[in-house]
Amino acid sequence: MRTSSFLGKADVVLRGFSGYNTRWALRVLARAMEGAAAVGAADPVVVTVFFGANDTSLPDWKQVHQHVPLDEYQNNLRAICAYFKGHVWRR
């Protein structure tokens, strides 16, 4: 579904950084989400978090700097989800 499908029905806030893995995203998450929720806006109904492709880069390949071990990846995703559950839109 395209964001244009929501015109006039919902505010869609996109935040994406090409090439980022969960480790790097955690470092910039708070700054990346600044201004995402307008004052007086309703709390979000849906938040989509999409990571994994860069995290799974093989550690012995050219993109070794993007690789994140599975246990760290899981912990990073939990931390990202906890951020959205408890920090971004709480007033």
TrEMBL record:
Domain SGNH hydrolase-type esterase residue range list: 9-85
InterPro entries: Iah1-like (IPR045136), SGNH_hydro (IPR013830), SGNH_hydro_sf (IPR036514)
Superkingdom as given in the UniProt entry: Eukaryota
Transmembrane segments: none
Coiled coil segments of this chain: none
Entries under PANTHER family matching the protein: ISOAMYL ACETATE-HYDROLYZING ESTERASE 1, OS09G0121900 PROTEIN
Protein name as it appears in the record: SGNH hydrolase-type esterase domain-containing protein
Organism: Oryza nivara
